[in-house]
Amino acid sequence: MAKPADIGSKRLISLAPNAWVQWVTGNPQVRASQLLDAEFQWISRESDVIVKAKSPEHQEFLILNELQLRYSQAMPKRMRNYVALAEEKYNLSTYPVLINILPPPATVTIEDCYDSEFMGLKARQDYRVINLWEVDAELVLGQPLPPLFPFVPILKGGASESKLRSAVQALRADQTLNQLEPLLAFFASFVLEIPLIQQIMRWDMTVLRESPWYQEILQEGVAQGIEQGIEKSLERILKLRFGEIPSEIYVRLQALSLEQLEELMATALTVNSLDEFSQQLPN
Questions:
Q1: Alpha-carbon gap, residue 188 to 242, rounded angstroms
Q2: Is residue 61 a contact partner of residue 21, using CB atoms and an 8 Å limit?
Q3: pLDDT at position 131
């Protein structure tokens, strides 16, 4: 059974660090030299990965990678804080990159800088934003970019059986990559039918529950308040997979206990339709 760290951000980047740093910077001359400790005195997050890199033009510098399941409006300030802490700890210039995995609600604007002014003093931190739903799946498979193989189904043009089969084939062709298959199944479940995914690849809900991104989906809701938060997470998953949710389902979710809501997190990811989800709701 894969451990959470095996399919987290650091593990993904470590699979092909040179390909990764060249992709996020857009510079083919950049080379990765070391994955550094991203833990600071006050902050430690599994989604943050710092890579020491080097190029002929810029010499040694840091690439700060933040892989975010879904963009948060707190990200600009967070990116500013991480850059400052990283530069202080390692005494190197930093190139910060925010990689958003799933699109936020249409009402949310994704910012690419932190910009504030107080009493005439200004603070600004720019960072590069990469939205995975805007990245071409063909590019990822053809280049190739192994750290992005598990995300192929949610990339631009990736939500098809043929692309899923190509991604599975790429993972199984390399012993160091095949442990990522459950993560590929997880992201495929947002855009493809579960029976199709089960037919093509390994589907292990136990492993998926251990994925840091599955846990982040759960924690998105928990941070808002236990029962209400998990209920909101369920609604987000159902909306992402099936579109608008009938009011009847909203009403039934509000009547459920914390334990029942937690069990339904897995159900929301494995059912094939809203009707099927509704049939599995406790009476």
A1: 14
A2: no
A3: 97
